[in-house]
Structure formats: structure tokens, C-alpha cells
Amino acid sequence: MTDITLKLNADPLILQALREDISSEDVTTNAVMPEKKLGTVELICKQDGIIAGLQVFERTFQLLDPETKVEFYAKDGDAVKNKQLLAKVTGDIRVLLSGERTALNYLQRMSGIATYTRGVADLLEGTKTKLLDTRKTTPNNRIFEKYAVTVGGGYNHRYNLSDGVLLKDNHIDAAGGVKKAVLAAKAYAPFVRKIEVEVENMDMVREAVEAGADIIMLDNMSHEQMAEAVAYIDGRAETECSGNITKENVKAITDIGVDYVSSGALTHSSPILDVSLKNLRVL
Asked: Which of 86, 171, 218, 271 is most buried, judged by most C-beta within 10 A?
């Protein structure tokens, strides 16, 4: 993330998370550390995986005290190992103790997403198909989770509802059919916006192609149906497949030749990567 992105978009969310954890005071820390003392603590990885979110981890402490210093021994996107020393954090011990859980929550969650994404992306290596995330993210954490996907080797689909046109089943029902929905979107949306439409069968595929959709999402279709659809579309629109795509089954669609595969599992089902702050010392 750039400094501007952190300040404008991430900082308010990190502060909100800190306020959630410290509503008035950190009673435990204030009991054992009533005055400022300088200390250091080590960030240690407890699992093999891909690290992501180190800037957010650092920012959490610096929002509590700008004088906090973090010395990193890894960078986002690195493959890390169990017991590896990732960083040392130095500053007011009260800040180290009070910011610990929030900083680790971000780092564990983001690293878990990056690790899972890398595992799926590796299965698509050597094919034309790009791996996309979805909007199935934790509320108020989308900026962190979608960033973690890119660190893991995936790509971001639209960021939010203002970012692009995606006509799903309920939009199509509201409009009265695929063609009417696509034509309405073409009439309303700025010409720079691509129009994507979700389809579930070959009749809808044909209608989407006829209406001039830019991207056709093949949703929850069988392998045979997707292959038939891609052959019919034949480059007249970009293609995406979606619907219960996971690490366990993504390999099966690589022979179809779709341009994109989107997976909500990248953000809603990735387990965390276990990291910990240990060995605190008073300086």
C-alpha cells in the first residue's frame, strides 16, 4: 500500500479497530506498566506461508505512538517459515502491549489470505486464466483483504458497487431478462465501464453475446456447460467462471480456456497464518 492509501483509507479503519479494543484504557497494561519505559519485542512466524500486511502491522503501533520503530527482516509476498524472525518492534512498552492484538489480527488475517491465494494461483500457473477475488469480504476490512489477495498472486475484481457493472441474477430478473439488463446498463453506465453479466445456461449465454456484454460470467455451470459456452462465445466477450471455486477444484477448469476464475473462498475461507509477538525486553 502507498503512504497515501494508508493515510486516507487504512488509518481510519485501523483506528476504529484500536478503539474497539481500547474503549477507555488498557487496564492490564496500565496496572503493570504505569509509566513510559522503552522496550523491544520480536515478531515470530509460527507457520510456513506467505506474509502480507507488514505495513498495517507497523501502522497500528505508530498510530498509538509515532515514535514506535519496526525493523523488518521480511517483506510482503515473501515465503516465510515456522520460527522465522520477521521483525523487531521498539517503543513505549505500553504501546507494544496495547497494540499487540490488533496488529497481529491484521497480520494473521492478511497473511492467511495471501497464503491461500498463492496456493490457488500456483495451480493456474502456465494457463491463460487469471485468479480473481470477489466482494465476499469482512465488512470494513475489504481494503486489507483485497490487498492480501494481490500479495498472494491473485487479482482484484471490482472493489465495490461503484467500480463496475455486474448484472447478477436478481438484476436480470428486475430488468426482465439478460438482453434488457445489458441494454439498460449500456444506456446508463459511462462508456468507459465494462459490462459483465452472470449467466447460468446456454440460452442466457446466447442472449448475453447478442446484447454485446463485455464479460460473461459462467456461474455454477458444469464443466461440460462451461466448455460449450466458451466455445460458443469464441472471443466475442471475455469469460469468467464462478461458483464454489476452491483450491480443491480449481485445477479442473484450467482446460476450458476461460479468461478469469473468481473465488470468494480467497477472502471468506482462508485460515489465518499464525504469527506472534514474543520475548519482550525492557531496554
From this structure: 218
